[in-house]
Specification:
The complex is a heterodimer of chains A (372) and B (500). Chain A is of the alpha/beta class and 372 residues long. Helices cover 32% and strands 23% of the residues of chain A. In chain B, 55% of the residues lie in helices and 13% in strands. Chain B starts with a strand and ends with a strand. Classes of the chains: A alpha/beta (372), B alpha+beta (500).
Chain lengths: 372, 500
């Protein structure tokens, strides 16, 4: 049974997310969202709820400090690396609101998963992709010192000493010599993997501004992060389109700004070709993402798009995600067309509107929250 | 649910060893119980103020959230928790290494001795573990009955006022006398009772019921006539929670909840009043016991490392462990050499002062006496010296509006002392007192902020008034000074109005 504090914890998380006790929302400070701070540094959000109290205004107060320095020196340089020592009485609860920590991408993905309560993905299809992994399951007689297996080494030494009758139970010293040394060694194994491919399609027509692209970029960073944590082998393909579509590399995908009209079908066609050429849906988990501001050139083209989705793309994909970024020029018509055809709760189609940067996390949750 | 277990084996042997040293040095403590637990459990305990069972509330979840994140990312780690109970419970982290366990144990005996002997703790309830657990049961029961949300949101409102305490209440004699008398009475009753209907109402509720004599009118709102006359008496008090229990038009369960939170707040108050002394005393003893007795030669580096970590100095605030232990040692040194009193103070020869030694040898005795009768304010007020400030590199800092940074202001002794003391006044909280319960003759509540030079945070003050209004149910007012002007903040349930 869980400790009752888990209930308090769950309740706190719900309040922070605004699911219950709405009237407390104004006291919630979220800390920041998980933000890459350059290098391996990330800020982990520490949401807090400040219960209002009569308290002193901050600025005028100042205080007493300890250390070297003369009058006029600033005291608010970097934080103490040690942080607070552990011992403590009842917390006064006015702690710092965020943590700067070094994280690996795996850890970051885990935090993202926890923050957004993302379910683990249930991969479809067979484990059909072979990958070779080394696992340290064997013992060998040669190897680097860092892999020396002490227990086995001493066991070997003990065996040898008993065998050669140089072991003295009165003075049970066991001294390994060179040939007793044992090392961990790797066995090569073939493991079957689930493989996944993500195909990003982005509308780069004139109506998509820098701000919109920035949103797409940030969102695809997080989506990649999550999918990478779920699949060992993942391939990512990028398509940009205005009236025509072409496949590009990652760099181009995020930098290009074209102008001109929009034919979404061009992208879907290319997507279809890529899938047919490289990814057998029986072996691959396929995730097409399409970001646009919702403007399509003509209703006819939209018809072609829907047909492509229906006939080809949807049947082979795990899920097709369409994210519509709000822009000043876009009409947002395509979202409406998709909703009209599939409803807002379709099985394999996830629609999401991204209003602004703050909407990114919500949108990621919409895309990945189903765990398919 | 046993998440922690009593120590055994080596740790028990170690405990007996350390306890032996503590006795040898003359520490006087409650029976000491150590339990070991894993990091998750110690995070839970820390989030709950050291107690294994508390009332349900999201704030414990919030503290737990932060502690666990801090631990997971390797930024902070709790080595030890100790609580003021008899027997005194302390928790050790299972993963501590051997020398850590030694330090923690030695440190805990210091705290234990302090809890038992310091005057400010003399009236704390040493059975608080049971009391807290009962509070939890009661509040859960209220939640079952009135719904989790209404009860929780009422608790939120009370927590908003939780810091409005009257330090005098710790020694307040009338209620204590009554308390003692009641205990005797209750023992009589209990002997007749079948033990089933035992009285688990909070102290505050009992006095509430006594005053109201409302035996058969459970959960009825007070009739208005009841309290008009009383409020006209215009009681003045800093015990705002106590005042609300008596005079606010609240239901019985609400009064009980205020009583519960008030009781817990007063329980923790002595610890807030003696943070520097308490940590200083415990650190003094872990350092003394370790370096003179318990430490093995091979552990010196580890010990020094840990000890230094605890004693870090910060430019932004003072570390109570550091200031506390240094001040304790300074007092010991001065009383060993007789460096106090008229003769010493009036000596003008610095060399002579430095060499001063009357071989008085009363250092240890003096610090034992200090730990008994002082709190942080009197401790700093009486024993902080200019020499000490200089040696410890203390300074004051203030905000520089020109570059938006905090900068070192001065190293002047008087300024430092004044700043330290003002930060400790009323345990660092603004002094708020009930001035009038029938303000303007309209049953409005008037609070007065006793202004000592620092303004209140206006946004927080307004939001607090909003919560107070929800309890008082009539307009509430706060008299204070803001930017050098007398102001009365007013909240009538709809809008905030400051009027001068």
């Amino acid at each position: 049974m869980d400790h009752p504090i888990k209930r308090d914890h769950g309740r706190f998380r719900k309040i922070v997310k605004g699911k219950i006790r709405e009237n407390l929302r104004k006291y919630v400070s979220h800390g920041s969202q998980i933000i890459p701070k350059g290098g391996d540094k990330f800020t982990v959000p520490m949401p807090t709820i400040d219960i209002p109290r009569f308290k002193f205004g901050d600025k005028s107060q100042g205080g007493v400090g300890q250390g070297q320095g003369s009058p006029g020196d600033p005291v608010d340089g970097q934080q103490d690396p040690n942080g607070k020592p552990g011992q403590g009485e009842a917390g006064e609860g006015e702690g710092n609101k965020e943590l700067d920590v070094e994280l690996t991408l795996d850890e970051l993905a885990r935090i993202l998963g926890e923050e957004l309560e993302l379910p683990n993905i249930e991969p479809k299809g067979k484990k059909s992709l072979q990958s070779v992994v080394d696992r340290y399951t064997n013992i060998g007689t040669t190897g680097p010192d860092s892999l020396r297996h002490l227990r086995r080494t001493y066991k070997q030494a003990l065996k040898r000493q008993i065998a050669t009758d140089s072991y003295d139970p009165e003075n049970p010293a066991v001294i390994p010599i060179r040939r007793d040394f044992r090392y961990r060694s790797a066995d090569t194994k073939v493991e079957m993997q689930n493989a996944a491919v993500v195909i990003y399609m982005m509308d780069v027509s004139g109506s998509m501004g820098d701000e919109q692209k920035e949103i797409v970029r940030t969102e695809s960073f997080w989506i990649n992060l999550w999918l990478k944590s779920q699949y060992k082998d993942i391939e990512i393909r990028y398509i940009i389109h205005d009236a025509t579509a072409k496949e590009v590399d990652e760099h181009t995908f995020f930098r290009t700004r074209e102008s001109g009209g929009t034919l979404i079908s061009s992208a879907y066609n290319l997507c279809k070709e890529i899938i047919e050429k490289d990814y057998n849906p029986n072996e691959w988990n396929i995730y097409p993402f399409h970001f646009s501001d919702g403007d399509n050139w003509s209703a006819d083209d939209t018809k072609i798009c829907l047909e492509l989705l229906d006939k080809v793309i949807l049947p082979v994909s795990n899920v097709f995600c369409y994210g519509q970024v709000e822009s000043r020029y876009g009409s947002g018509q395509f979202y409406k067309d998709l909703t009209a055809k599939y409803g807002s709760d379709a099985d394999k189609l996830i629609l999401s509107k991204i209003k602004n940067k703050e909407g990114i996390l919500d949108s990621i949750k919409e895309f990945l929250g189903k765990g398919v | 649910m046993n998440r922690s277990k009593p120590i055994s084996g080596e740790l028990l042997t170690l405990k007996n060893e350390i306890e032996g040293y503590a006795v040898e040095y003359g520490l006087d403590f409650f029976p000491q119980v150590f339990e070991v637990c894993d990091y998750d459990t110690i995070n839970i305990l820390a989030a709950q103020g050291g107690f294994p069972s508390r009332y349900p509330h999201w704030k414990f979840g919030m503290d737990y959230d932060q502690l666990s994140k801090g631990y997971t990312y390797g930024l902070q780690k709790i080595y030890e928790m100790v609580i003021n109970t008899n027997p005194c419970y302390a928790y050790l982290l299972q993963a501590n290494n051997w020398v850590d366990q030694k330090i923690v144990m030695a440190h805990v005996y210091g705290h234990n001795d302090f809890f038992k002997n310091n005057a400010w703790f003399s009236n704390t309830n040493r059975k608080m573990m049971d009391v807290m657990a009962n509070h939890g049961t009661k509040i859960r029961r209220y939640m079952d009955r009135y719904g989790a949300d209404p009860v929780e949101s009422f608790i939120d409102k009370v927590l908003s006022l939780e810091n409005l305490l009257d330090i005098q209440e710790l020694f307040e004699t009338t209620s204590l006398k009554r308390h003692r008398k009641e205990q005797i009475d209750q023992q009589k009753v209990e002997s007749e009772d079948d033990g089933y209907l035992f009285d688990d109402r909070s102290e505050a509720l009992k006095s509430f019921m006594r005053n109201k004599d409302r035996k058969d009118r459970k959960n009825e709102l007070k009739k208005e006539e009841d309290y008009v006359a009383e409020k006209a008496l215009s009681v003045k008090t800093r015990d705002v929670l106590g005042y609300l229990i008596q005079y606010a038009p609240i239901e019985e369960w609400q009064a009980d909840i205020i009583g519960i939170l008030r009781e817990e707040a007063y329980y923790f108050l002595p610890q807030r009043l003696t943070k520097i002394m308490n940590e200083g005393w415990a650190s003094y003893w872990h350092s003394t016991i370790m370096t003179q007795r318990a430490l093995d030669a091979s552990e010196i580096i580890d010990f020094a490392d840990k000890h230094a970590g605890v004693m870090y100095m910060s430019k932004q605030n003072i570390n109570p462990y550091k200031i506390g232990i240094e001040l304790m040692r300074d007092i010991e040194y001065r009383w060993n050499r007789g460096m106090f009193g008229k003769e010493y103070n009036e000596c003008t020869d610095m060399q002579e002062k430095l060499r001063w030694d009357t071989k008085l040898g009363k250092g240890r005795e003096k610090i034992f006496e200090v730990r008994k009768s002082h709190n942080d304010i009197s401790f700093i007020d009486e024993f902080l010296t200019p020499d000490f400030c200089e040696r410890q590199q203390l300074f004051t800092y203030k905000y520089n509006p020109r570059n938006g940074r905090f900068e070192i202001d001065t190293k002047d002794f008087k300024a430092i002392k004044q700043k330290l003391l003002s930060g400790l006044t009323n345990f660092g909280q603004p002094i708020i007192e009930v001035e009038n319960g029938n303000y303007m003759n309209r049953k409005e509540l008037l609070l007065n902020h006793v202004h000592y030079g620092v303004d209140l945070d206006v946004n927080f003050a307004n939001e607090t008034l909003r919560n107070l209004y929800a309890i008082w149910r009539r307009p509430v007012n706060l008299k204070t000074r803001y930017e050098d002007k007398e102001v009365v903040f007013h909240f009538d349930g709809k809008e905030f109005k400051p009027h001068s």
